[in-house]
Design brief:
The chain is an alpha+beta fold. The chain has one domain: Alpha-Beta Complex (5'-nucleotidase,  domain 2). It is about 30% helix and about 25% strand. The protein has seven helices and eleven strands. Helix 3 packs across helix 7. It is globular.
Length: about 210
């Protein structure tokens, strides 16, 4: 009876602290990474931005492992690395005009709300868009570091080498000649560094429908 009492007491304490079995098993799946902002994917992209000091960072949905799931808290570097299709891709920095960034965001929204391998997971920016507008005219506003996107300004954009070379159709928007920094480090490397001091997922969505 004492054992039963101890067990019941532990369960009660766990529930009071929010440690229910449901809570323990919850995580962020990558299943919708081609349709909307994803906390795990955004955190991975933020690792690139943090490592390079870029204004923003981006990565196409096709570069994520949609079958993966990352714990909402207490995750490891390996948890995030397993969420990538190509963790050994090199991290590089592009110098892009604001106008090019806007074109890339419109491309990411072309098929919205349908799944799109070219949909971009981003960090360092907030994008408000009108899902009812015609394709190519859906972005309403873009904010970077608290300021509005300047179409004539050049921004530093962190991404992977394949994306920088124009993967997923982005060769129509930028060229590999706009790569201004090759870090020599893989995406997995940047994640390992990032998780040494950051262990929470980015909860604020970068894409906001209005």
């Amino acid at each position: 009876m004492k054992l039963i009492g101890l067990i019941l007491g532990w369960v009660g304490l766990a529930l009071a602290l929010g440690w229910s079995q449901v809570g323990l098993s919850q995580g962020e799946t990558l299943g919708g990474v081609g349709e909307r902002s994803n906390p795990a994917a955004q955190t991975i992209v933020e690792a690139m931005r943090s490592a390079t000091g870029a204004d923003l960072a981006l990565l196409g949905a096709a570069f994520f492992n949609e079958s993966a799931s990352v714990p909402s808290a207490g995750f490891s570097a390996d948890d995030l690395i397993k969420a990538l299709a190509h963790p050994d891709d090199e991290v590089v920095v592009l110098s892009l005009r604001g106008e090019q960034i806007l074109q890339a965001l419109e491309r990411a929204l072309e098929l919205y709300p349908q799944k799109n391998n070219a949909f971009l997971q981003i960090s360092g920016a907030e994008v408000r868009f009108d899902p009812k507008a015609a394709a190519g005219k859906r972005v309403v506003s873009v904010s970077i570091a608290g300021g509005r996107l300047d179409p004539n300004r050049v921004y530093k954009v962190a991404t992977t080498a394949p994306m920088a070379r124009g993967a997923l159709g982005y060769f129509r928007i930028w060229t590999r000649d706009q790569i201004t920094q090759s870090t020599g480090r893989t995406l997995a490397d940047t994640i390992r560094d990032y998780t040494k001091w950051q262990r929470s997922l980015l909860s604020q969505p970068a894409w906001i429908a209005q």
